[in-house]
Amino acid sequence: VSELREWRPAVYRKCTDILWLLLFCLFWAGLVFISGYAVVAGAAERLVLGYDSFGNICGRKNTPVEGANLSGLDMTNKKYVFFLNSCSLEIQSPKISSLSLCVSSCPQQQLNSLEDLQSFARNNGSFLCVYSLNVSSYTVNPNAAQLCPTLPVPPSKSFPLFNRCVPQNPECYSKYASVLISMVNEMDVFHRILSGILAGRDTVIGLSVLALAFSLILVLAFRFIQTLFIHTLIALVVFGLLFVSGVLWWLHYDYRNDPSTELETEKENVKFLLGYAIFSTIITVVLLSLIFVLRKRLPFSVQLFRIVGKIIGRIPFLLFQPLWTFLILIVFWVFWVAVLLSLGTAGTAQATSGGQVEYRALSGICYMAWYHFVGLIWTSEFILSCQQMVIAGAVVTCYFNRNKNNPPPHPVLSSISVLFCYHLGTAVKGSFLITVLRIPRIVLLHLCNILNQKKNAKHLFSCCSCWVCFQKSCLRHFNQHAYTTTAINGTNFCTSAKDAVCILARNSAKLASISCFGDFLLLLGKVFVVCFTVFGGLMAFNYHRELQAWVVPLLLVGFFAYLMSHSFLSVFEVTADAMFLCFAIDMETNDGTAEKPYFVDQELLTFVSQSNKLTEGRNHRNTRPFQDNEDGTELQPM
After folding, report:
1. At 222, phi and psi to the nearest 5?
2. Measuring CA to CA, how many Å separate 618 from each of 299, 452, 513, 612, 637?
3. Minimal CA–CA distance to 547: which of 305, 263, 312?
4. What is the DSSP string of 469-490?
5. Is the separation of the CB atoms in 497 and 17 below 8 Å?
6. Among candidates 521, 526, 490, 485, which has minimal Cα distance to 503?
7. What pLDDT, in 10s, does the model give residues 231-275?
8. Which of 44, 372, 404, 626 has the most CB atoms lying inside 10 A of its own CB?
9. Name one GO cellular component term (predicted).
10. Regarding beta strands 95-96 and 91-92, do their DSSP bridges make them parallel or antiparallel, or are they unpaired?
11. Does residue 236 sit in helix, strand or coil?
12. Coil, strand, or helix at residue 112?
């Protein structure tokens, strides 16, 4: 097919992969339905703010529940949960047996009588008896003993995360802590993770901004690349990898030997830290080995980025391309997390005997959560695919232009219009293939966690997961060339992929060694952003250990940091890949004569020739002893 094709940017196009675009629209219709259902049925504030026995969430206004007379109260000024029987709590699945109220402040001193309760309410405005009992009736109502806390009321102070009044009396505290630990441990992992995300939301936002700053610095540095910056980047990456690995091992040792580790969340932190430390150590060893092997190709990498920077200089708006991608990703991630939090707390409030309220989880929430998670991967990959197609289209427009000093007007806007008018379905299909490879890896990790006791099964699943991850990386690189081919010929994804494979297969010897180290330097840039963002997260989250599954939010921060760095640095990656594909097409379809002159400029042609001569020279030196001596033994010097 590729031999008969003219390989010029198509002027007259048609829509490609329309069925895939319709499928994506139907999938998003399902996401919209789940989002609306989660907003109506969920209440994320219950995870952190806490609520009383009558269905009122502390610290906010509430809506009444049918059958519960004391529900629907305004608790804006009452932010703490107080248990009437805090010294003798018991768990009656899945809730605590004692009646709980929302109060404005916790009693700092011991209250021994109803008169002390009445005086505390009048002086502090914090009512420790049931809402229906008036302050003046504390001492005269015959049912006050049942409607007020068990006397004496021990002194207590508010707990920072769950906003509970924790008794300070040693006996009451030990009983209260054991019940609270049991309650948190009985929560499923999903709810513990959500609680950790909500509790550390300010830190997560701050670390995301830090990752954005690192990504912007790297983009500007790669635009004006110099040899000193290459060496500085490599030194920083080596330092960051060693330092982060050391900190992870130290934190794992510190957590494992901490005698106060009782909560399930803290035990999960220890497990995750061990996994992070092992993974970080392996990545460090692999990257250090690659840096040592490829250290002599630094001059060619500098020249490569100068050529890419020259192309970006002709299309300066390419540097702003990641900004709108980043903004769209941020808006989508905020929407996704908000829906996830609402979905995790989706439940119906039902009144029980005595006017109390219980929240019962709805059926089918687990399936909705998995559907929502697939939506996160597919939509994120779709947004990144759109960016790749826009950059590839702009580079193709400028490459196949005879007058290099006078580039076409507005190539980025032209590429965006072509994408939205004709090729959204192609971006959907390419992102779906990435998603299909991501989901089995996640399922394998989940099965590996279930079969944690069986070592053979665990090693098998780990090998399968690594193989799927390798396939995903290869497919992502393959998709970029398919998008570039679509930008040139206007063909669908499968046809473009086949044409790109044919071209690259015939020119792989010329181009593979050239782009290898450029991609490796961009990978080091991404590792730099992730390393220092994760290090900041380790220092920030380590100060909030209590009752937080902070290692999972840290993983979320690392994932966001990688996506941000990939979104920004992919400008150089996609530009280089599109440039080399256009170069291969140019060399194959033209011969440099007056009838078929080359589109390539002299600097790129010289760079490719010098790089190929270096590679051929090395291959010749490696095979020369065997050519001189047929028996395969090395010749001795005279």
Report:
1. -70, -30
2. 16, 47, 12, 10, 20
3. 263
4. HHHHHHHHHHHHHHHHHHHHH-
5. no
6. 485
7. 777 788 888 788 878 887 887 777 777 655 555 556 666 777 777
8. 44
9. plasma membrane
10. antiparallel
11. helix
12. coil
Query: Cis link prior to 152 (omega < 30° from 0)?
Result: yes
Q: Which single residue is written with the structure tokens 């030194």? A: 235
* Whether 126 contacts 105, CB under 8 Å: yes
Tokens coding 539:
């220092």
Encoding tokens for residue 187?
């929560």
Residue 548 contacts residue 200 (beta carbons within 8 Å): yes
- Report which of 45, 40, 78, 46 is spatially closest to residue 59, judged by C-alpha positions: 78
Residue pLDDT, tens place only, 297-319: 666 777 777 788 788 878 888 88
The answer, yes or no, to whether the previous bond of 94 is cis (omega within 30 of 0) is: yes
pLDDT in tens, 515-563: 666 777 788 888 888 888 877 777 776 655 544 556 667 777 787 788 7
CA-closest candidate to residue 394, choices 493, 475, 319:
319
Structure tokens at 245: 């690995």
Query: Do 553 and 541 meet the contact criterion of CB atoms below 8 Å apart?
Result: yes
Nearest to 124 by CA among 67, 74, 70, 80: 80
Give the span between the Cα atoms of 217 and 185, in whole angstroms. Answer: 43
The residue type found at 234 is I
Owner of token pair 């094709």: 5
pTM for this prediction: 0.68
Looking at residue 266, its amino acid is: E
